[in-house]
Amino acid sequence: MRINSKLLGGLLALTLGHSASAVAGLNIFACEPEYAALAKELAPDASIYSATTAMQDPHQVQARPSLIAKMRQADLALCAGADLEIGWLPMLQMKSANANVRDGSDGMLYAAELIETLDKLDKVDRSMGDVHAKGNPHLHFSPRRFLQVAEAVTARLKRLDGDDSAAYDAAFARFSERWQAAIPGWEASAQELAGRKVIAYHTSFRYLFDWLGIEQVADLEPKPGLPPSSGHLASLLERARKGDVSAIVVASYQDTRGANWLAEKAGLPVLVLPMSVGGNEESQDLFSLYDSVINLLKGAN
Amino acid sequence: MNIFRLSVLASALISAAAAAETPTLGNPAISAVLDGYYQSGDRALGGREEGFGLGESELAISANIDDLFYGKLTTVIEAHDGETELELEEAFIQTLALPGGLSVRAGRFLSDVGYLNNQHLHSDAFAGRPAVYRAFLGSHYFDDGLRLSWVAPTDLYWTFGVEGFKGDKMRAEDEHSEREFDTVGVYNAFTKLGGDIGDNSSWQLGLAYMKNQNGRLTPHEEGEEVHAEDEHAHDHSHSAAYTGENTYVADFVYKWAPNGNYKYQHLTLSGEFFRVNDFKAPELHEEEHEEEEGHEHAHGKDYHQGWYLSGVYQFSPSWSAGLRYGELDTQLAHDDHFDAQKLKETEVSLNWHHSHFSTVRLQYTRQQGTNFDGISDDNLFTLQYVMTLGAHGAHQF
Lengths: 301, 397
Hints:
By secondary structure, chain A is an alpha/beta fold.
């Protein structure tokens, strides 16, 4: 009857999709693809799941059944934090009934809490739009901050999975070395972009622009979280006619209609940048994501 | 064009995330919901009334109590018939660290029966709950009790739970207050399954069985009329208008968004089916005989039943539209027999969302009643706003 029981087990595994790989290492739940990609660098043996893709606005996610099921099995959840996931992560934590990923547990890590975010606010009011006090959460385009996050993730991995300490140290050393070697290359390549002025959708690339010296002079959103309105676009056209703006920048999950209208009227290029790994063909990992956004920005003369 | 001196403004433009901090001990999540409306007529079965009015204005506070418990308190203020009522909708604690995917919730909370019931009214796409909810659950079934639930450690979402409640709201009529009711009146067992289909779609199926110890009608006495309608049509006590000993519920939800990106467009299809059996009093035997005038005669069935189907499409960040159709078949106790009643509701809503936090809704409702007092074929218009302030609400599936 051994065959039968095997068959049954196989069927059961198929029906329930139970991840057999949990044996191989930790089970990591990443809120955004950049954290799934980081986990891949730092914990190659782990079973990693990304709750969102680069085509999805990570703020507008729903606490859907599949995410609850994945959260239920996680040993570690890696998220941007700074309230980016405020609409769905607390509910996943509640519904998954998994003590590992409670706030304050070793298995719940918010990147924004490990570094100094940009644009922290002392005073917030919803009349300013959908803003918050903890600063901008899209910090994965700050290479130095992201390295700090990587270090903290490694410390956390070691605490959760002490037996493999040496392997985690080695993985971090490898990543850190490659990352630090890549930074000067990116900076050299992006030198010509310093001082550029762009109009962008939201503050999605705040850290990238901060790093490369690009200035976002206007926002397609009238207020954070509000869709571009025709009146607002008209005022942006006025701004663009000053002639100092070089491009309109939109992230891979943002609607390009407003940007296209403005681009046509103002004679500017629209650059759709991948927001994260998987946001375009080229962005297969963190390194190629950085390569891709810099190449796309340079492509706009 | 100082307005667009964004280098200055940029410091105030933060990523799309909320004003509220993640709730902590020293900083609980506090939120309020404001709901006001004008409606051109009365809704059947305890829906909104004609004229200007307030819906459920809600004030909620929640936080982790410590590393083992979470707590929430929700008060609802309702005004109708010139009176203001304060009601406690939620006052519960929930465990955070039980092993094996188990959790316990205790206190007053929303039952996990059906799809809509565990969600707050302000997140609905229509101005009221479907007729099945108003008939069988008092619109929104919250009660004092205990829940034990379990989430399976599988990639397919599977949860199972049991609840026990006081069940006062689900009691059958008792005109003479002589009946001995069970103090734990309602037991509910539910299960939900769900998952994704590719990047674009997600689904969930739910089944529930609710046992109501006090659901059967009280044995009938000569000359008395049990008229659920009169008792409940304008009774906002949140009691169920029709009860029975055994209730079976099946529900489904399907959501679609291009690339799974809910920001610009998404579609939600959902439906629920309720059947309530065993409502007749033990001594009450149905006798077939001719009706008095003015009532359409129909054989009373042995069950109440209802269902609805709903589709809501958000076609831009600012606009969404919904269409919902539902039917209700109930048996109204009348002297020593039952009269069949039917209610059909068609609802169309158009919603404007200026932001994540505000909705203005225009809704058209057609209610067609057979044997429902005062409802024959009515066309209603509702103009409503629902707005939230304070902590960021949850995007519940």
